[in-house]
Amino acid sequence: MWLLNTSTAELKFFHNPSSVRYAILSHVWREHEQTFQDLQTLRAQFVSPDGSPRARASTKIRDCCLYAERAGYKWVWIDTCCIDKTSSAELSEAINSMYAWYAHADVCYAFLDDVRDKDNPYAHRSSFRRSRWWTRGWTLQELIAPKTVVFLSSSWHFIGTKHSLAHVVEEVSGVDRAVLVHERSLDDVSVARRMSWASRRHTTREEDRAYSLMGIFGVSMPTIYGEGPRAFIRLQQEALKAIPDQSIFAW
């Protein structure tokens, strides 16, 4: 697992990330996100005066590092730049491990870049409730897996936590409050119910509809981009093997 040093934005590989205290980012991808290769290039060619590439990192990466650093974290994980996506083996391993990585994180920062600083999450038409973050496939596991989720506005201002906003988050996401705050295990939730949480979410790649749910069902399988709807069929097959629950047929 590659982690970013919050003070330098340099990448370091950890063979046993469960032994490291790190923060993790959940966000909506936008155009021109910096990649693993981009950060390695910055380290090699565009070193800032303080000897680190953080000053030349993208605004999102830099602000995330700064926020985590102020909170006392030396390491942070960001999916756009902490996976070498040119390696199919590394990409597959990361996708299969991602739920565990979010679960093991000390804190997850949910960066809602379309939410105003002074927004009231409780208001019916709040920008918090209407954020695009709630519609993405990958953010479902990023909401459920971590014990602590901190919601941040477009300017990285604190909005609230998964626990303090549990009732609002339940209304918006459809995920049971007891599951959100880890009072109830996913193993106690039917397959059909888990599927319903993802029904209104979307992914850019068709295969990611299935891959983003592997952790929700506690299954692993090879990732094969290009297989299209076959990925979801394989997910259902693996879920049936792992979970003796026929509610999947009702779904």
From TrEMBL:
Residues 22-119 form the Heterokaryon incompatibility domain. Pfam families: DUF8212, HET. InterPro entries: DUF8212, HET. Residues 230-251 form the DUF8212 domain. It comes from the Eukaryota. This is HET-domain-containing protein. It comes from Lentinus tigrinus ALCF2SS1-6.
